[in-house]
Amino acid sequence: MTYLGQVYAIVWKDLLLELRTRERIAAMGAFAVLAGVLFNYSIDATIVRPQDIAAGLIWMTLVFGGLLGIGRTFYLEAQDGAFQGILTSPAPKDAIFLGKTAANFVLLYVVALLVVAVFTLFFGLHLGTSPALLALVLALGALGFVALGTLFSAVSSGTHMGETLLPILVFPLLVPMVIYGVSATSRLLVGRPVAEVAGNLRMLAAFAVLAVFAGAGLFRYVVEE
Amino acid sequence: MPSRPPPRVDLDLPVEASTVPALVTARRVEPAVLSARALTRRYGAVVAVDGIDLDLAAGDFLTIFGPNGAGKTSLLSLLGGRLKPSGGDVHVGGQRLDFGETSWRGRIGVLSHQSFLYGHLTVAENLRFFGRLFGLEDLDERVPERLEQVGLANRGDFLARQLSHGMRQRAALARALLHDPELVLLDEPYTGLDPHAAAVLRGVLSSLKDGARTVVMVTHNLTQGLELANRIAIQVRGRFTWTGERDDVDADAFEHFYHEVVESGRA
Q1: CATH hierarchy code of domain B15-266
Q2: Among B190, B226, B240, which residue's Cα sits nearest to residue B79?
Q3: Does the predicted TM-score (pTM) go above 0.80?
């Protein structure tokens, strides 16, 4: 119970801080909306059908926008040494990581839904016959993304390059997520049978589980001096 | 009131001829709440903490003085398990600081010149958050008690960033004491405080001398450092170049003595 209580405490604290500051959600949300507007004007709909490329644009918007927020995971922690306070507690490092990842997941998933809403609005998309499955695809992709993003945000925050380093570290690792996420989203948006995305879903789930476990195992080596 | 005799060293002698040893091993006390053996920390070629031995019993209040770069903060971080030693080990309450598990952290409270508080959370929210991390379940009673103890009973609903620096330090002390640690580590707790705020904090810190806790404080300020201590160490270049009892120290002569010890340690 203590372990789950410690994870919950981190989630509660991170979400409450975000609710009060709105720093990250505002940046990610604004990016999502602006990207949707710009993509809308950058595509000639008489040549390219929006549905054909929407999935890729949705995931790219999610990755770039998400990185704006995830990259600042440890920014508030650094103020007045607050994260040092957490490290002086008996909370296991993996519990700290899971808590921060869970809080980041909530934020990113809200942004993911916003991104889909924006593209639905500007591109006139139909969410296919399985919107719930689309929501699951986004959830699995977001989970893998935030697990890696949280881990590498801790790495980059300890360097003089800071947030600049984060995309260089994370983007190569996100390739599997983007491949399977875009593939599943494309198929769902054009109404292909659910069976066609089952493989992609399994790969996204495997990626997310691997990222969470790897992050939980490696986090202590990142934050311990 | 006659002044106490100067500490161990004839201040009229040149430093080279003084009895200041290169390294004084602290006395052994049983049972030791805090025990360190050959504690060493290197940053590349730089040795910040160089083979320090230390034993402190319940009720001991050790102040560590030293110039900038002496390794005081590194030593405190090692004693609190915030930093991994390059060599040697630390025991708190008989439990070795093992970085593979973290239960021993519940024995230690840390107060730094940084508050370790979240500015956008209220003082009470901060305490409840850290209380959950320490696995405490009686937070409804414990949080108001600690706020009362540090004189912030009516500031629990204030955001931490709305507090003055002095109040924030007291809130940070409430956080450090929330889990009733056996060992309290104070890293330059008076930094940035005006004289009044420092006096208020000193009053709160004096309550730590209850005979049950062990306290280690690092400071540059000789006057403040002597006020509460019963044991004193001077650290230079990562080593204790002098240790002694507070009662053996003449407060008026201590500054001169301190400079001599520092110079001899650098020689």
Answers
A1: 3.40.50.300
A2: B240
A3: yes
